[in-house]
Amino acid sequence: MTKQLPLIQFDQVGVSIHGKAILAGISFDMNAGDKAVFRGKSGAGKSTVLKTLLGLYPLARGTVHFQGKPLDKSVIAEIRRCAAYIGQEPVLGAETVRDALLLPFQFKAHSGNKPSETTMIKALRTLHLPETILSQDCSRVSGGEKQRIALARGLLLGKSLYLLDEVTSALDVESKQAVFDVFADPKLTVLSVAHDSDWVALCGRVFDLEGGNITEEKRNGDA
Amino acid sequence: MGTLDIGMTQMATLFGVVLLPWLLISLLGLKLNQVIAVSLLRMTVQLGLVGIYLKTLFTLNDPWLNGLWIVVMLVVADLTILRRAGLKRRYFFLATFMAVAASVVFSTAYLLLLVIQPPLLYDARYLVPLTGMILGNCLQGNVIALERFYTGLRKNENEYLTYLLLGATRWEAVRPYFREAVKAAVNPGLAYMATMGLVTLPGMMTGQILGGGEPWTAVKYQIAIMLCIFTSTTLACILNLKLSLNLAFNEFDILMEEVVEKR
């Protein structure tokens, strides 16, 4: 039986931003369905890991493979096609929440899959958001709501890989649980950055990052 | 009826008109004395040299010399656009040159071939001032377009990246900033056109009237030049921005910091 290739593979990856080394040569891999979290102090390079996978920063050294292929133009396009990145302050990019949810469907890549009103409401409810939020102005929604709207947009796009940067930081207990429930789905792969102990406990794999290096890797359930 | 010439004594008298504002600026302690002196001197020397050159150009009226003069104007315009827009020459020189040259040549050729139809198409008396006016306005538009586009993109980096990560192509993701940049570049020209004759008496028309031309002919020339300026500015801005999209981004559609001048 052939061994399944990891979905994501970082091998001695170094990244420098404005001449400063942010990642010093990290290595890890993840399979489809894994839930992983990076922890560490501010400036340790956690967000850089997520952004490097999306092709936002060039590699100073090392290699990144996705589905066994090294990063190039077509692989980056494939990652962006199947991944959703949700940051601490997600940009909704539209005036109303409805327009924000429909924004990606204006692009050629998703133009044929515009969701119905019912589908949008269902996605919002999954994340404990009321349907009335659809007509609300994006500038009037809270940080936590913005994060969940961005997540709902990912769900509507049928994304299978979620790159989450402190997504539960602005959530109350109930909303946090709703987000946990969504990512309990074994089909979804999660690579995240978090300090929240509840979120860390949910993730099967925990990486501690310090000064651009992985100092410890734990698998939840390990003694 | 020709224009009344200004003699050398009157020219010297002319500089007296700036003494009062110069004095007021000095009294206000603005420390602009040196700047004013340099600006006046530069303008006088530069225009003097242009006068000598244009006189030679008009006398010889050689198609190659006229063409060479236009190429020089295009190169200077290109360098000025990039310097003022804060973009590096080694990345954008050729693209800006091509965009501006194509648009200016198109508009000027349209004006000369189809509208004015001078006996000699390369006649310096028509070719040089018309190209100069069209190019000058095109320059301003391109500075605004490039500067607005790249500043907008850098200021709204997170928004641009969000579009990319939501599946937008590079073109789809830059489109909002592209539209804003083109709008900002053509808006001043449109506002100028809309108020022309009411608030401002345009330079070309005034020049023709002072030169002894019929007011009605001057009006027609002014309309012709304004339409060509609008066309060339719009075309050059769109073309320039479009060409720059292939030069300013890496293979993953991320704007390369090194294309922008550090300020």
Automatic annotation (TrEMBL), chain A:
<feature type="domain" description="ABC transporter">
    <location>
        <begin position="8"/>
        <end position="223"/>
    </location>
</feature>
<dbReference type="GO" id="GO:0005524">
    <property type="term" value="F:ATP binding"/>
</dbReference>
<dbReference type="InterPro" id="IPR039421">
    <property type="entry name" value="Type_1_exporter"/>
</dbReference>
<dbReference type="GO" id="GO:0016887">
    <property type="term" value="F:ATP hydrolysis activity"/>
</dbReference>
<keyword id="KW-0067">ATP-binding</keyword>
<dbReference type="InterPro" id="IPR003593">
    <property type="entry name" value="AAA+_ATPase"/>
</dbReference>
<keyword id="KW-0547">Nucleotide-binding</keyword>
<dbReference type="InterPro" id="IPR027417">
    <property type="entry name" value="P-loop_NTPase"/>
</dbReference>
<dbReference type="InterPro" id="IPR003439">
    <property type="entry name" value="ABC_transporter-like_ATP-bd"/>
</dbReference>
<protein>
    <submittedName>
        <fullName>ABC transporter ATP-binding protein</fullName>
    </submittedName>
</protein>
<dbReference type="InterPro" id="IPR017871">
    <property type="entry name" value="ABC_transporter-like_CS"/>
</dbReference>
<dbReference type="Pfam" id="PF00005">
    <property type="entry name" value="ABC_tran"/>
</dbReference>
<dbReference type="GO" id="GO:0042626">
    <property type="term" value="F:ATPase-coupled transmembrane transporter activity"/>
</dbReference>
TrEMBL record, chain B:
<comment type="similarity">
    <text>Belongs to the UPF0014 family.</text>
</comment>
<feature type="transmembrane region" description="Helical">
    <location>
        <begin position="221"/>
        <end position="241"/>
    </location>
</feature>
<feature type="transmembrane region" description="Helical">
    <location>
        <begin position="126"/>
        <end position="146"/>
    </location>
</feature>
<feature type="transmembrane region" description="Helical">
    <location>
        <begin position="189"/>
        <end position="209"/>
    </location>
</feature>
<dbReference type="InterPro" id="IPR005226">
    <property type="entry name" value="UPF0014_fam"/>
</dbReference>
<feature type="transmembrane region" description="Helical">
    <location>
        <begin position="40"/>
        <end position="58"/>
    </location>
</feature>
<feature type="transmembrane region" description="Helical">
    <location>
        <begin position="6"/>
        <end position="28"/>
    </location>
</feature>
<dbReference type="GO" id="GO:0005886">
    <property type="term" value="C:plasma membrane"/>
</dbReference>
<dbReference type="Pfam" id="PF03649">
    <property type="entry name" value="UPF0014"/>
</dbReference>
<feature type="transmembrane region" description="Helical">
    <location>
        <begin position="91"/>
        <end position="114"/>
    </location>
</feature>
<keyword id="KW-0472">Membrane</keyword>
<feature type="transmembrane region" description="Helical">
    <location>
        <begin position="64"/>
        <end position="82"/>
    </location>
</feature>
<keyword id="KW-0812">Transmembrane</keyword>
<protein>
    <submittedName>
        <fullName>ABC transporter permease</fullName>
    </submittedName>
</protein>
<keyword id="KW-1133">Transmembrane helix</keyword>
